[in-house]
# Entry
Amino acid sequence: MQRTLLTASLAGGVAVAGLFAYQAQSAKPGDPPAAAEPASRAPAAQLPINQVVLFSSGVGYFQRQGEVEGNSRIDLSFPVQDINDLLKSMVLQDMGNGHVSAVSYDSQAPVEKTLRSFAINLTGNPTFGGILNQARGEKVEAILQQSTTQPGTLTGVIMGVERKREVVGKDIVESEFINLWCAEGMRSVRLSDVQRVRFLNPVMDSEVKKALETLALSHDTQKKAVSLSFAGEGKRTVKVGYVVENPVWKTSYRLVIKEKGKPYLQGWAVVENTQDEDWNNVRMSLVSGRPISFQMDLYQPLNVSRPVVEPELFASLRPPTYQGAMEQNRQAQQVLQQMNSLIRDQKATRALSDMAMSESKDGQSKGGGEVYRELRAEQKMLERGVSSAAAATELGDFFQYAIEQPVSLARQKSAMLPIVTQEIDGTKVSIYNQNTHPKFPLLGLKFKNTTDLHLMQGPITVFEGGSYAGDARILDLQPKEERLISYAIDLGTEVETIVPNAADQLIAVKIDKGIIEATHKVRETKVYNAKNRSPNERTLIIEHPYRPQFKLIAPEKFSERARDVYRFQVKVKPGETAKQEVIEEREVQHRFALSNTDDQTIRVFLNSQVASAKVKSAIEKAGELKGKLANTQLELAHTGRQLKDITDDQTRLRANLKEMPPTAAAYKRYLDKFDKQETEIEQLRDKVKQLQATELQQRRDLDGYLGSLTIE
# Structure
């Protein structure tokens, strides 16, 4: 089963930076309606790939071009995973007087499900008799083996296929017979005597042919067929463009460092043809950039759930009549106006699109129809071994390498194409980063991209003095931008790092609503001692961690600052030592609540020369209030312990009085002591109440004082 997608143009293809100028063809009066299968069609034409544009975001744009004649159909096959991208981005163009009639493609349903949809189900390899049994009721023409007992040709309607037992020699075998209803009545013919059968119903004959075509296309289960139908007259050129997933094209570089003169850079692009089709003399472009690309499941049928509504039964009513409205609802008017505006906008957009996509017969754009203008900057390359095969072009925020010569690449093959061959500005340096290597810096090169090309990220193989020197890696580099690369360890230079203890200085004290805010200035120092043991002068670049919370004090200037490091440049002569000191400062704030700060911390602020007289006076007064509160709390605790001791002793006295007779001398002594303790308990309880009231008032006084205490 095939699903049909009627298309004139797809917006996704226009977003491919105008890889070809699109020409909208409007249907003329009298043209036949678009259909998946035109009534008359020339044999399927070939449409080879003639242009490939590879992006560094994992997709590729492919354009096919060829000639068709009359009403033609072009059959292509694509991997299943590419169908969604095709539905999202395919653009078709008929360059003659024809137009695109339809694009049809295989359903996502399994082939067994598709086969079951035909009148004759070919699923499961049915037998001759099984196929005829499915066609019960169909009129056929059967050609039989010639004999004296039966005619050579029979025409009738299939009634069914049955099995009968027959005696063949001494054996009993089971044979199949086809039962036909013929003009002279019902006949039963041994199936082995039937040479061929032809359906006389053209619809049935077409169903069998379609089922066989489906079987033929299903041999490669990983691919789906896509048919492009073009309607028109005469020979003409057609184009098809689409964006599908493709491996990211990669770059690799070779850098030759000479004793005298500029370094020489050679860049190669690595491309892969992972498709099942050869690229023969295709125009190739390589685009560096990160266009947004995504996949959307347009291949899977989407069904919307609809509510089931039960019909309501009412008695017959007379048809009512209604009076005209005096004033329309404002909201309804607004909705109607919005709908009319939307319809007008769609008509205007369609008119602008037709104008923008139209072209003159000689291929030149008309006025506003210019969608894309190719910009080519000729680059002057040095004649060294390999010359660049690409011309660089800037496409907005992207950069394109257009390969000047046609490229041929067999299926499942890869190729290297030269894109850069040029001298660049560069200086040898040694790069030290303690996190990379704590002892030795790395040999490197500080170079400037003077190629006027966007250099994509990739590996760099460095050659020096005619031999291999090491490997480096570079990130994306814009024209005129400078970058460091490192390719080997500099064993001739040694760097020692010294980190003295950080200095902490109190620089400000203030009070905000009873909270002491103390500001400290923390100064950190790091010393880099570099020793050059090589016979050549070294330009040492020291990378020091960049921390936004610190301020650089010394040196006042740096060579450059990256996202995470400062870079300082130091010249080190042969056999000598150079030093680079880096001093940074930051301010740190600490907060202390006066209500619960210990006495030792308080004494630090009182003895500090930074704190003002007002701050010290406020701290002293807060200390006095805290002291009074603390004394009251101590006295209250002491009184509470006394009260507890007497209460515990009374428990002992009660036990003794209970066990001792009233006439005993000790009984009277215990009773007198018990009476005195009752008096003490009343006095202590009164004192506890007074102390609790005093504590509450002192706490309120302290909290009120601290809550309103703010001194800068």
Summary: The CA atoms of residues 660 and 695 lie 44 Å apart. The radius of gyration is 48 Å. The chain has nine helices and 34 strands.
